[in-house]
Design brief:
mainly alpha
C-alpha cells in the first residue's frame, strides 16, 4: 500500500514539476523577445519568472525521484515539451505543425504505456528502506 501511495505522489510531483518546466521555456523566451532595449536579462521580470518556474519544476522532479521509481518518473519529462507547445503558440505566436501534434500524441501514448507497466510491477528489493 505504501509503495502505491509513493508512486502516485511521485506522479503528482513529476506532472506538476514538468508542467512548470514547460511553461518556463516560453516564459524565458518571451522575456528575450520583448527585450527590445537589449537590457541585461537578469533585469527582466519575465526572465526571473521563467527561471523561478524552472527551479520549482526541477524541485518537483527531485521530489518525484525521491519517492517513486525512476522508470516511472523519467518518461514524464515529455510533459514539459507537451506543455511548451501550446504555451509557445499562445504566448509567442509560434505555429504548431501537424508533425509536432502527431509527435505529441506519440509522447502521450508512450508515457501512459510506460507509467501503466511500471506502476503495475512489484519489486522485491529497494535501495532505501
Amino acid at each position: 500500500f505504501g509503495e502505491m501511495n509513493n508512486s502516485y505522489l511521485g506522479l503528482i510531483f513529476a506532472i506538476i514539476g514538468n508542467t512548470l518546466i514547460g511553461l518556463s521555456f516560453s516564459t524565458v523566451k518571451y522575456a528575450h523577445t520583448i527585450n527590445t532595449e537589449n537590457v541585461s536579462y537578469i533585469r527582466l521580470k519575465w526572465w526571473w519568472i521563467g527561471t523561478t518556474l524552472m527551479g520549482l519544476g526541477e524541485l518537483g522532479n527531485l521530489l518525484a525521484y525521491a519517492v517513486a521509481k525512476p522508470a516511472l518518473i523519467s518518461p514524464l519529462g515529455a510533459i514539459s515539451v507537451l506543455v511548451n507547445a501550446p504555451a509557445a503558440y499562445f504566448v509567442l505566436g509560434e505555429q504548431l505543425q501537424k508533425k509536432n501534434a502527431v509527435g505529441g500524441l506519440l509522447c502521450i501514448a508512450g508515457g501512459v504505456g510506460i507509467v501503466h507497466v511500471v506502476s503495475s510491477q512489484k519489486t522485491d528489493s529497494h535501495f532505501v528502506s
